[in-house]
């Protein structure tokens, strides 16, 4: 274990790498790791659980002339391997983000993508300082790779054409950062990293520009985080759970990043759990074996203690209910109750406001649960219940109790549907939404609700009497009565068959009869639209008595229907139907101002 006990005891800054799915996060980490291994002997770089520790002298070897190690008193950098997704970036340490600093990886040809926007949003919310790695510069047409070189050296070796194409892409990214509210520039032009975001062009494939990235990260940490890196070397350890994993021979274990103090084998720890904080005793602290010993059977070696900042696997009883993103606290010189209260308080900051009705939300970590809750709050979607973990039968049972159909839904971020819940879901009236991108998950749900509402409106619309105003044409009486058959022109609205029709006498509506047939060019039809001329059969009146050629008639719209049309379906009906409705309502309301209201 590296010795953190030297006088100034500054811990390693924790670096998270975020970005859109295929923009090269993993390959960038692999390159940094790989060049670190070839730089020092294999022992120089320690693999932690879920993290890679790169000491200062290895970094200065990789960065060459860009770094003078005597400028730094930080021990190096700890890169966290996000557990396969960026929700990690919302993992917390004492109410802030777990990572001290972040690298946002953007494909230089692809620019900002949905998850890039999301990562930026998280960085903004948590106030985490970050640099942008503009990856894949080597895919610029005509690029001449300079393996492992600093980027400016590499750019000098390019043709004018390749250089200007790359510049164009880089300025595109700088523009997108500016749209997101960050002023940014190529890192060597940035005077003040607290005000401006540095953009580092690089290639994870050829390693060019990687020395620059490490230099910028070291510089940022040294300059702005020295105070935060000062830790209590012997104090009780504190950390955050990355993942809960079952390990053969150990049962449920928690992969943890320790950011303060020391954790020792045998310590009593409190870990955030799905219901109550878990109090347990450490049986083993596990680290991957050094690369040199990878041939041995066991992949882990036991260590006696681990100090910040480091990644470690903790084996202890009763960890089944531990949650990704939850705090881990060593009890040591306090009472268990005090620490349990602290953990509860930290979890309470993440408590999601739930309401009497709403959707069920499941997410993989507390951080992503919190991000989901924020996104739903902005979209004004209420939450009935929000929890960390995979989707279980009881989630389906809870979702089914929602009192509005559109709330009978489960939104799962980065979680699976448990096998024993599959048939429950098939038999339940519950819709499941799953996605790896938070805002897409929310959008999918919103689209579903809109479609549901539209479908409801369409069924209502089918049943509602549509308004229509029409005129009996002169010289178009085909039959005087039983039924009267006349030619009409529809002035506005939709004339539907089997409706009562009449006219206004003063402001009184007089019903004259029932429309029992519509014929258009000799064929029976159900309706006629504005502008059409049709012949209609009306049961009741006689032409010459009751109705005359030249009369203007209306479809009688029942009061309840008029109200629905005006208040709920106004946007769904056509302009001429609105016009017919308006005319009908105005006349009706001259006599009774509250008619249809």
Please tag this protein with its features.
TF_aIF-2_arc; 597 residues; single chain; elongated; disordered N terminus; alpha+beta; eight-stranded antiparallel sheet; protein biosynthesis; Small_GTP-bd; eight-stranded mixed sheet; GTPase activity; nucleotide-binding; 29% helix
Summarize the structure.
The chain has 597 residues and is an alpha+beta fold.
Structure commentary:
This protein is 29% helix and 30% strand. It is of the alpha+beta class. The chain has an eight-stranded mixed sheet with strand order 2-3-4-1-7-8-10-9, with helices on both faces. The N terminus is likely disordered. This is Probable translation initiation factor IF-2.
| Overall outline | elongated
Number of separate helices: 13
**Overall pLDDT level:** 90
How much of the residues is beta strand, in percent? 25-35%
By DSSP, the count of extended strands is 34
List low-confidence stretches. Answer: 1-7
Could you give the distance between the termini?
Answer: 77 Å
Query: How does the major sheet shape up?
Result: 8 strands, mixed
Q: What is the topology, as strand order, of the major beta sheet?
A: 2-3-4-1-7-8-10-9
- Gyration radius from CA atoms, angstroms: 35 Å
Binding site for GTP: 19-26, 81-85, 135-138
GO molecular function, one term: GTPase activity
InterPro entries: EFTu-like_2 (IPR004161), EFTU-type (IPR029459), P-loop_NTPase (IPR027417), Small_GTP-bd (IPR005225), T_Tr_GTP-bd_dom (IPR000795), TF_aIF-2_arc (IPR004544), TIF_IF2 (IPR015760), TIF_IF2_dom3 (IPR023115)
Family: Belongs to the TRAFAC class translation factor GTPase superfamily. Classic translation factor GTPase family. IF-2 subfamily.
